[in-house]
Design brief:
By secondary structure, this protein is mainly alpha-helical. The protein has a domain at 53-199. Helix content is 77%, strand content 2%. The chain has a two-stranded antiparallel ribbon. A hairpin with a 2-residue loop joins strand 1 (6-7) and strand 2. Helix 3 packs antiparallel against helix 5 and helix 5 packs antiparallel against helix 6. It is elongated.
């Protein structure tokens, strides 16, 4: 019968919850980066502002502000990459000794699930954390590339290479921000995946809440309304 479907330690409800988790993560990432033309996301709007920043950068003298900005962005990626790496290490330690989790589950009467099921649940969060770490590291590298490209922009705005190189720096900046945002989404869903420790229904609820929150921030937030007031051309 359908209700008796199992794959390893995972029951039908676990499989549904895991599929929803993966599907929601992929969907919100895709719709954020490829929004409808009539309803751009915050991430898409920020791409325009980043390109406008690089155009203004050409004529700004001195360029100390821009240097401080790009350095701040690199520091942010370093902080999140370090945090994600620590979280991944903690998750791997729990996978090796899941008895602490099973004992806690017994205290809260969460059921007597097999050891392998707890390991699968923890591993899911660890994989999202690992994905976040890799995205943050790549984002840091891209911001470094953008800083070098910015340094190569001529100081003379009449130089024929000034604006083309500024556009190159803008593309690197945009790609770095895109990778950073992917890392943040992976962090959100790693935290969401931890709800699976409470059971598949808790995971389903966490997925719906997390996806709704991310959608609202990208498409219905006050930050988006502020960005729409005077968008760059």
């Amino acid at each position: 019968m359908m209700t008796s479907l199992h794959i390893g330690p995972l029951g039908l409800l676990d499989l549904v919850a895991a599929a929803l988790l993966l599907g929601a993560w992929l969907w919100i990432g895709w719709i954020t980066e490829n929004p409808p033309a009539h309803r751009p996301s915050v991430g898409k709007l920020m791409e325009g502002y980043r390109r406008a920043w690089m155009r203004e950068f050409v004529t700004r003298k001195p360029r100390i502000f821009d240097s401080a900005m790009i350095d701040g962005l690199r520091q942010s990626t370093t902080f999140f990459a370090s945090t994600a790496l620590v979280a991944v290490g903690g998750g791997l330690a729990l996978i090796g000794k899941p008895e602490q989790v099973t004992a806690l589950a017994s205290d809260f009467a969460l059921g007597d699930a097999p050891r392998l099921l707890w390991q699968v649940r923890i591993l899911t969060a660890v994989l999202f954390g690992a994905n976040a770490f890799l995205k943050f590291v790549w984002s840091h590298r891209l911001f470094s590339y953008a800083a070098i490209a910015m340094a190569a922009v001529p100081n003379d705005e009449s130089d024929p290479l000034a604006y083309p190189r500024a556009e190159q720096a803008a593309r690197l900046n945009v790609n770095a921000a895109k990778s950073f945002n992917r890392g943040l989404r992976a962090v959100y869903f790693a935290l969401c995946a931890l709800a699976w420790l409470l059971g598949p229904l808790a995971l389903i609820a966490a997925v719906l809440f997390t996806t709704g929150m991310l959608w609202r921030r990208e498409f219905a937030s006050s930050a988006r309304r502020a960005l729409l007031e005077n968008p760059p051309q």
